[in-house]
């Protein structure tokens, strides 16, 4: 009874006294505690405020003043103009506006139809079940079936089997090229069996024969057979569903394995274009001169000078620092290498090539670029050219051909700003952009798809595969006698290579070059010095090669590896003979017939180390891209080679095993 009396209170809103609020319309007020009283006061205040606001608005409306909700000029509006006004909205079929889709937490459940992303997920699951050999309920439509079949077939051909290469898949970074496409290219490549079949200008054909006299040069490589006709405009444009007239330069991508002659694949068509432009300009000038002469003969009073001032005699062909073509490469070593090939061709073809890099002095750069006889082709690194173009924008005003060699490097984070800057500056006059690389990483593929949707992709059949003629050996450093000592394992491996008898090379008809050149690749720059010092202590002629190495020493060392230096072989008796003489490092044993360069990625990009038969991977490379470029320094252009990986504590032995397997099968690394 006491409880009931206590519970009977007057409602603060309706003033009704009731028991326990069972029959009362405001139950919360009837069960008021200290806390609910505060809430009640708060709600009452809110109602009073709202009523006051209504009164306020009504008074403003009556007096004709501005409504509070309507923005006035003094207040900045949060609404911005749509920039897609011009894009027509999709009309509703029956005039009724489409129902707004709501995304609720469980809205994806209990669907009766699979749409959009759901379809993709179902496809993927279906694929996985098919791969696992399970039967599936869903009967795919004929197109889906074909697409799925192709995808599985391609994956199997690319990776060997859908279940293998787990470790490689984990660090997958390369863009996959379907094998269907590769076979089609193979057939096309076989059709071009000599340079004479290519419609290159006579002077270029002559340069191929005379400037590059080796017999082997007479047949184009697959990379050249694919790229040269396309760059000469002989290849049919792929059919598109919506043939819209394209504007801007034509773009090409050449993706071909290492050591496949990509340099000549772009140099020959570029030189051909330079010579044709030169000839066309000469014809134009002659025609103009003939027209002027006729006009003067018809009207003897005609004056060519303006206000008595003679027009300057502008000879476009010898305009200094305005090249017709630019070749971008990632390092000074590559500038020198490509420059040397261009120079040798220029003696026959008569064009002016200017290889410039940060290793050249300012005077040399100025003399080469601003040569009074003009310049046709500039070979340079992007940062240097971008800085020159900053102060001399005219340098890119006449460029019709832009080549980006080692495109994956030049479009990665470090080079991308300067490469794109050059591209943008040169675009107004550009006719052709040519990108080439031995590896096409996913980021490059995505970038090209976004920025060059019409790009013609020229791919060779063996892209991303390491040729079978390169063998891969593995040294387990954890085992006896090395017990985890990688430096010791490296020195011992070099000694074994140095002491081994040279292989008989049927192509050369004799034992292979007695002096052996070995490249040792490390992952970190600091290790180059440490490893080289250790090897020297062990009586090996080794040298560290990195950005800070003395340029003269570097060039000298590289020259003997790239075959540009005349190799002085040791005399008969000296070959493979260990001297008992004590050398400078205090070692009594010295390996005479072996030269070693210890380097990082710097030495793996594009350098044509034709004399290298052995590559030692001191560290397991981080990606398959590095594997391809490092092992690509040996076995170039049909030669045989050998790679040796030192697998030490903490190294990915599983990755090495899978790379070896893929190499054995002759398949592309993924
Ligand atoms: N048609 C050919 N026949 C024989 N040898 C050739 C031919 N074309 C080029 N070569 C030689 O092949 C070697 C490799 O050429 P190049 O440096 O252009 O390869 P690359 O594909 O650019 O390699 P990387 O991807 O490593 O940069 C060079 O020594 C070159 O002289």
Automatic annotation (TrEMBL):
Signal peptide as annotated in the record: none
SMART domains in the cross-refs: DEXDc, HELICc
The Helicase C-terminal domain, residue ranges: 499-670
Keywords: ATP-binding, Helicase, Hydrolase, Nucleotide-binding, RNA-binding
Coiled coil: none
Top EC group: hydrolase
The protein's name in its UniProt record: RNA helicase
Entry EC no(s): 3.6.4.13
Domain annotation DEAD-box RNA helicase Q: ranges: 193-225
Organism: Paraphaeosphaeria minitans
Region Disordered: start-end pairs: 49-165, 279-300
Extent of motif Q motif: 193-225
Biased amino acid composition, Basic and acidic residues: 49-59, 120-157
Catalyzed chemical reaction(s): ATP + H2O = ADP + phosphate + H(+)
InterPro entries (alphabetical): DEAD/DEAH_box_helicase_dom (IPR011545), Helicase_ATP-bd (IPR014001), Helicase_C-like (IPR001650), P-loop_NTPase (IPR027417), RNA_helicase_DEAD_Q_motif (IPR014014)
One GO MF term attached to the UniProt entry: RNA binding
Domain Helicase ATP-binding: 243-458
